[in-house]
């Protein structure tokens, strides 16, 4: 479950008062957008995606800035699984009108997120890391050159010896690199 206390701390960091946070949670529970006041998950992932777009569309620019700050906090939180962050980035990109909300993520978060991805060790994290790095193509200027520069050897290691159940994600990452920048793709492959 996603606790109110955890999210309240983030909301306060983003400039949302505790009272306003509580009122918002109460309203979303009443409207059946969240499971309960003690479990702040949406009843279904697809509903979460739809709500994300609708809620963003109905906000003022200042409120969207606060949402961006919350997104930055989520991306910076190393306790959150990379696969979940990949899903969040996909849903944010696709919410309401595709690509409308990708600029909510502070570009200063890209490099630390890539570094975190490149530090992935177990198969689940490597798979999530590959999905996150693939999704960053929609958020980061200079993708894939920045990514390849930061993680050339790690990406090639993953490709050469993919962890179990991570091959699809790694292949997707390499496929997107080849489609976005063939010269960068060739430099990556020739480095091996």
Number of strands: 0
Could you name the ranges where pLDDT drops below 50 across 5 or more consecutive residues?
A: none
What is the mean pLDDT? 91
Spatial separation of the terminal alpha carbons: 43 Å
**Biggest beta sheet attributes:** none
Radius of gyration: 18 Å
Number of helices: 10
Question: What are the defining features of this structure?
Answer:
single chain; mainly alpha; 192 residues; 66% helix; 10 helices
Describe the structure.
This protein has helices at residues 4-13, 18-30, 45-57, 61-76, 82-94, 110-118, 123-135, 145-160, 167-180, 182-190. It is mainly α and 192 residues long. It is elongated and about 55 Å long.
The gist of it:
With 192 residues, the protein is mainly alpha-helical. The chain has ten helices and no strands.
What's the structural blueprint in terms of helices and strands?
Elements: H1 4-13, H2 18-30, H3 45-57, H4 61-76, H5 82-94, H6 110-118, H7 123-135, H8 145-160, H9 167-180, H10 182-190
